[in-house]
DNA sequence: CTGATGAAAGTTGCATGCCAAAACAATCAA
DNA sequence: TTGATTGTTTTGGCATGCAACTTTCATCAG
């Protein structure tokens, strides 16, 4: 079973990267459901690599919180309670708010162009495909939008934390009661406001706008004490 | 070269854990200096495990930011500039401030006892051994002190971020100009104040005290815009 | 039928080997 | 001497095999 691929078309990284993307995407699209068991051998076979890179990929996903690993036990797709989702957005608000504040004073014109371009793309695929069709692409663009701001904050640690510890499968949005189209339109407005604040170089505004954006996700009133 | 150890005395986890602790401790104590190359085979041999668990351990350390990995390149011990250290403490202030705020309403009496016990221990070993002797033990107890508060915040993600993305080798303290004894004494006072705030169940106070504690590390005035 | 028990099957943890890419060294041209 | 070039050595990336452990399932006592 030697499926060595000396040059696999549009391949970017190594086998770990392939496995990582594959599994992550399966989780993100809901193909792998919360709580579902993850068997190294099966995944390896399915992806076309050996167990070693699959193990590394699962390790990474475990760090990111998308997968739960326990010694000698089968991995599982993590499941996210509403309160966990809320907590993630609270933490992201703290960190990305901080990031936006710093970014307001450091962001370059070309980064702002990039943000505007990303936002245009998001709006255009939303207009073309509607919510359900655009979920996966939206996730990607939206992640890059936030990552661009974080990187403008010039804090590699912040980058890493946001990229690795505070990601959620976009499928969680499907649990919300609010019509998804409404939520999406609001998201776009908020993105534009954040861009405005960054363009103006106003740290307070940028932080506040980012906070508003992230905390608006928590529409369901949450009864626990702050 | 089969150094299999069917039951290795007071062993806790697996080979990965052994490798992880070994390498981490070497970095933390300064045995491995910043920028030093990390060769899988050499480490594996030295630790007494194979390369596979060493690779996993390095992966973990890379996620934690203590090690820098790049595909096909030798790993290196990360090096921490003053501005990175400052940024870590700013991020910790945001996150642990949030944690302390939540903890103030949730912490249990037994957790408070635990904090007081930890603080007593820290002060006692400091009194006995002075700064240089107590560095490694202090690091351990101090980490548990902060981890206890974070866990009282009842936010597993926060736990994981603090444990994995915002750790620094305690050796960085040696770069500060301020006499270490002074700094340590202030740390103890601040710890006691944090405990007081938590005991009082006052979220604002707890957050503020935690912020004061973490931001006081940045004694060197930093000229960059916030 | 229910819960305990133990063997068989399945899965993960780790060691090892091979190959490809990087690091290094020697050689040569300018 | 210096910088480029090529050949050699070193080292990391991945596949695979075996051992340790968990899970499953059949069996049996109650």
UniProtKB/TrEMBL annotation, chains A, B:
Keywords (A to Z) from UniProt: DNA-binding, Transcription, Transcription regulation
Pfam families: FCD, GntR
Keyword Disulfide bond among UniProt keywords: no
GO molecular function: DNA binding; DNA-binding transcription factor activity
Domain HTH gntR-type residue range list: 13-81
Keyword Transcription regulation (UniProt): yes
Protein name: GntR family transcriptional regulator
């Amino acid at each position: 079973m030697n499926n060595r691929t000396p040059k696999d078309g549009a391949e970017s990284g190594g086998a770990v990267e392939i496995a990582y993307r594959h599994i992550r995407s399966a989780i993100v699209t809901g193909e792998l459901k919360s709580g579902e068991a993850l068997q190294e051998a099966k995944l390896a076979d399915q992806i076309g690599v050996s167990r070693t890179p699959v193990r590394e990929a699962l390790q990474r996903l475990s760090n990111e919180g998308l997968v739960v690993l326990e010694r000698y036990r089968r991995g599982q797709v993590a499941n996210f309670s509403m309160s966990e989702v809320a907590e993630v957005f609270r933490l992201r608000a703290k960190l990305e708010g901080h990031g936006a504040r710093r970014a307001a004073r450091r962001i370059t014109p070309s980064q702002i162009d990039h943000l505007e371009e990303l936002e245009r793309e998001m709006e255009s695929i939303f207009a073309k495909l509607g919510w359900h069709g655009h979920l996966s692409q939206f996730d990607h663009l939206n992640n890059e939008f936030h990552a661009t701001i974080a990187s403008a904050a010039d804090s590699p640690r912040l980058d890493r934390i946001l990229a690795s510890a505070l990601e959620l499968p976009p499928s969680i949005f499907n649990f919300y009661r609010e019509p998804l189209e409404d939520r999406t339109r609001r998201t776009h407005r908020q993105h534009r406001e954040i861009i405005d604040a960054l363009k103006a170089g106003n740290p307070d505004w940028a932080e506040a706008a980012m906070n508003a954006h992230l905390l608006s996700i928590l529409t369901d009133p949450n009864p626990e004490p702050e």
